[in-house]
UniProtKB/TrEMBL annotation:
A Pfam family annotated for this UniProt entry: UBA_4
Domain of life: Eukaryota
Name this polypeptide is given: MGS-like domain-containing protein
A GO term from the CC aspect: cytosol
Length: 233
């Protein structure tokens, strides 16, 4: 089947991007894209609706924010030699996915850090571990999806969200003057935040800086250089 080279972006590029996301063979990909007039975003979203599962790889098309990813790919000039790196693009939508964590001696400080930005946080998807999430709901009247407390696996649950590209910002007030039975879990969580390029606030000043940023209500794209890191091993 021949491709029309007069369209912009070229159909070869759209096809390559579609296959990078879906792993579908060439003929089936072309047939599917023709159904949607070579609109990459529409084709990907319809494929998700038809399959009803997370078969669209690590791009997390299931997440509301990441549905902008197909449009981002289509509008970007991507050479045919680097399609395999598309899965390392994460689009942070206007509604960010924010995790809120605080050690026992830092919970009240966290609430006071968040209080001035209560109305801003209401526009985003919030996650929290243990009593921190419950405290945010009680004190600030915000809806929080709560995980287990840190020592019971909450840090690991957040780590899984990061690995799945389902978290954009981590706000974590750590008590540096206390010993923690789950120190290894905390270290692993912070390591994953670095590996996957998560925006991190680990002090009151950094949390204030992040939440007051104009980018809190803007789309933002970040690149995860996993392939480069793994090649060095």
């Amino acid at each position: 089947m021949e491709l029309n080279n007069t369209r912009a972006p070229p159909q070869e590029q759209i096809l390559a991007n579609f296959q990078a996301v879906t792993s579908m063979n060439v003929d089936d990909s072309i047939k599917f894209l023709i159904r949607y007039n070579w609109n990459l975003k529409d084709a990907l979203e319809q494929l998700y609706r038809e399959t009803g599962s997370r078969t669209l790889t690590s791009l997390c098309i299931t997440q509301h924010n990441d549905r902008h990813l197909a449009e981002t790919i289509q509008n970007r000039e991507i050479s045919l030699g680097v399609e395999q790196n598309i899965s390392n693009i994460v689009v942070m939508g206007k509604a960010k996915r924010i995790a809120i964590v605080a050690h026992n001696n830092k919970k009240n400080e966290m609430i006071e850090c968040l209080r001035p930005y209560r109305n801003i946080l209401a526009d985003h998807k919030l996650y929290g571990t243990g009593t921190t999430g419950a405290l945010v709901e009680k004190e600030l009247g915000l809806s929080v999806s709560k995980f287990e407390s840190g020592p019971l696996g909450g840090d690991q649950q957040l780590g899984a969200k990061i690995t799945a590209r389902e978290l954009d910002i981590l706000l974590f007030l750590i008590d540096p003057l206390d010993n923690h039975v789950h120190h290894a879990d905390v270290a692993a969580l912070l390591r994953l935040a670095q590996v996957y390029g998560i925006v991190c606030g680990i002090t009151a000043a950094s949390i204030d800086f992040i939440l007051s940023s104009t980018k809190m209500n803007q789309r933002h794209e970040r690149q995860i250089n996993l392939d480069q890191s793994l090649n060095k091993k």
